[in-house]
């Protein structure tokens, strides 16, 4: 898993999962994994909750899978040496339920990220059904380091910061972002996501990979618009709006070195100041 590589072919699988139909969604994932592997893709990324759909509500427990269960093992085996990110509801050994994303590589599940921030406001009700995660961990993605964020995680500065301080080369954000509002030719959510991810790419000097779903559930449309940003915030690939698509992007990890040498933002970060000031703030609250 640690062999150094420079060029990576990424495929964004902007799909419309069928709500509560685990068998159908697993079959779709298997088909797309087989096609991507045949095409020589290095990293295949599916959206948040790609195996289950989003508005599960009382179906959450029925759709939950253990991270070491047969279903994910089958997908990992099909992927072989290819890297795959897929979204699912995880059930742990104590029957707690999480919105999770699995990173699969070399025919096994290598890392699982549990969504830290569960929106329970407006049209969202995740905190009623799910348990929040409590860890932010970077991981070896096979020649580069990566970190996962699930939708609302990306709206909290602490998550990309913590991943950046663990030496990530790539931030992977998976989402079920609904279409809401219009602003200057873009949907309001689309504009916010695109501006935010470009900023994260610049400030962390990393590649940012974003996969958002499409389709309809309970009268809500999901806008898609998945994409890849380079370490200078430049758009490298973008999927269409409101329709299913497979979008490929070729990146060169050597571009990270160029960006970080030209402007050493990450290297110059003063972690000791951040740590000291956070301690001071917490003491003041206490």
Q: What is the topology?
A:
Blueprint: E1 7-14, H1 22-38, E2 43-45, H2 60-63, H3 70-79, E3 83-91, E4 97-105, E5 108-114, E6 139-140, E7 145-150, H4 158-164, E8 170-175, E9 182-183, E10 186-187, H5 188-204, E11 207-212, E12 214-217, E13 220-223, E14 227-229, E15 235-238, E16 245-252, H6 254-262, H7 271-285
Parallel strand pairs: 1-2, 2-3, 7-8, 8-11
Antiparallel strand pairs: 1-16, 3-4, 4-5, 6-7, 9-10, 11-14, 12-13, 14-15
Task: Explain how this protein is built.
- By secondary structure, the protein is of the alpha/beta class.
- It has a single domain, classed as Nitrilase/N-carbamoyl-D-aminoacid amidohydrolase.
- The chain has helices at 22-38, 60-63, 70-79, 158-164, 188-204, 254-262, 271-285; strands at 7-14, 43-45, 83-91, 97-105, 108-114, 139-140, 145-150, 170-175, 182-183, 186-187, 207-212, 214-217, 220-223, 227-229, 235-238, 245-252.
- α1 (22-38) runs parallel beside α3.
């Amino acid at each position: 898993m640690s062999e150094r590589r420079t060029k990576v072919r990424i495929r964004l699988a902007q799909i419309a999962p069928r709500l509560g139909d685990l068998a159908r969604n697993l079959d779709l994932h298997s088909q797309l994994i087989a096609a991507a592997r045949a095409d020589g893709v290095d990293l295949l990324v599916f959206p948040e909750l790609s195996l289950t759909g989003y508005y599960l509500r009382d179906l959450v427990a029925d759709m939950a899978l253990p991270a070491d269960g047969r279903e994910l093992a089958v997908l990992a085996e099909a992927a072989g040496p290819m890297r795959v990110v897929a979204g699912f509801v995880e059930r742990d050994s104590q029957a707690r339920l999480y919105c999770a994303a699995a990173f699969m590589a070399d025919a096994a599940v290598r890392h699982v990220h549990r969504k830290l921030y569960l929106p329970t406001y407006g049209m969202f009700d995740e905190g009623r059904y799910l348990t929040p995660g409590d860890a932010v961990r970077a991981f070896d993605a096979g020649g580069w380091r990566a970190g996962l964020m699930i939708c609302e995680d990306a709206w909290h500065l602490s998550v990309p910061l913590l991943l950046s301080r663990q030496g990530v080369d790539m931030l992977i954000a998976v989402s079920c972002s609904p279409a809401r509002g219009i602003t200057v030719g873009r949907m309001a959510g689309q504009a916010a996501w695109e501006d935010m991810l470009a900023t994260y790419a610049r400030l962390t000097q990393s590649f940012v990979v974003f996969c958002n779903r499409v389709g309809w559930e309970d009268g809500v449309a999901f806008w898609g618009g998945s994409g890849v940003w380079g370490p200078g915030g430049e758009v490298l690939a973008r999927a269409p709006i409101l329709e299913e698509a497979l979008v490929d992007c070729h990146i060169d990890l050597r571009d990270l070195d160029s960006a970080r040498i030209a402007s050493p933002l990450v290297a110059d970060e003063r972690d000791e100041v951040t740590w000291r000031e956070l301690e001071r703030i917490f003491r003041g609250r206490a």
